[in-house]
Amino acid sequence: MAQTPEANVVFGVFNETSDHESRVALTPDTVTRLRKAGVTCMIEQGAGNAAAYTDEDYAKVGATVCTADDILAKADALGFVDRPSEQMIGRIKPGTWVIGMLSSFTDEDYVAALASAGITAVAIERLPRQLSSAQSMDEMTSQNSVMGYKAVLVAANAYGSFLPMMTTAAGTIRPAKMLILGAGIAGLQAIGTARRLGAVVTAYDVRPASKSEVESLGAKFLDLGIDLSRGQGEGGYARALSAEEQAQQQAAVDRKAAEFDIIITTAKVPGRKPPMLLTKAGVGGLHRGSVIVDCAASELGGNVEGSQIGTQVTDGGVTVIGAPYLASEVSTTASNLLSRNVADVLAHFLVNGRLEVRQGEELDDAMVVAHTHADSNDDKKKGE
User: Fold this and answer.
1) CATH superfamily of 9-126+331-372
2) 197 near 163, Cβ under 8 Å?
3) What is the pTM of this model?
4) 3.40.50.150, 3.40.50.720, 3.30.930.20, 3.40.50.300: CATH of 145-324
5) Cα(101)–Cα(120) distance, rounded to whole angstroms?
6) How many CB atoms lie under 10 A from the CB of residue 133?
7) What is the pLDDT of residue 238?
8) Which of 13, 111, 142, 244 has its CA 20 to 30 A from that of 331?
């Protein structure tokens, strides 16, 4: 029988549960996978409770359930659902690796703080998604898929009628007409979910390649009557449109929106302000009882003008739901996927039982935004 490699790296995860966060960056099955790679796991008490994983579940597979202070003292690498706070950065010992979505595109001061603290920071948002070797590490894809699924359920719950067509003794109820704006990972998952629930689905995205993807799922592609064929950006993301193109797009979407009962917006540009796809005029043109779910709502704004995190009802009776935390509401599955993503990122940097940054390696060069040349394993051993 094959023996488990000697553990050289200690990986720690904290309890990040809050009013908006139920996910955990390590699940028991991932503990087992990491042990086979020679990684010992530590997890803060209660970290998995909101995702339906108990401390006993972790202990059974060999993880050490302990306090945050214990993790900070012993871990070589830390995995996060979100990112460590500035206060937490001050507590992390130099030489430690931090893996997570670090908002490195827009927060240079934060990245500088990680570097000043002597931390090696791996920003998953910088993952080159087009590389086949990176697919299992792609947290954005996995979490957006969960988000798209949940967005449809939230919309269906808020909508005052059925999604599918129903023939009853009292008459036939027409199916809901749903528009998905943004046909990336979240949008495609939303299309599939809405179709399974029986809605008549139309979708739109500025990327030319999205038309065939939308139609392959049985949805219609929205014809705005304008040419934005240069919409494809780098790495599979939609590029940012020019001001003139945005104005054209918004006006066309506003006109078409009035035809639909439910609108779900999923267009995000990583680390940047989301594009506005539906203006107040467009919202005002919807009929009473219509529902909008804006998955891009954030402090930076959303896809819908005036949308805020939470639910609001306009004077015209349109329900607008700003919902950036949808993945957290499917916490068990979202945690399973996220845990695999983070663990595979960690495993990528394991070289002969040690954590190393390899200069010239495409994934390393792309994701490592702060790096200390101190060896975390040696630092730990010196302190023992």
Assistant:
1) NAD(P)-binding Rossmann-like Domain (3.40.50.720)
2) yes
3) 0.88
4) 3.40.50.720
5) 14
6) 11
7) 55
8) 111
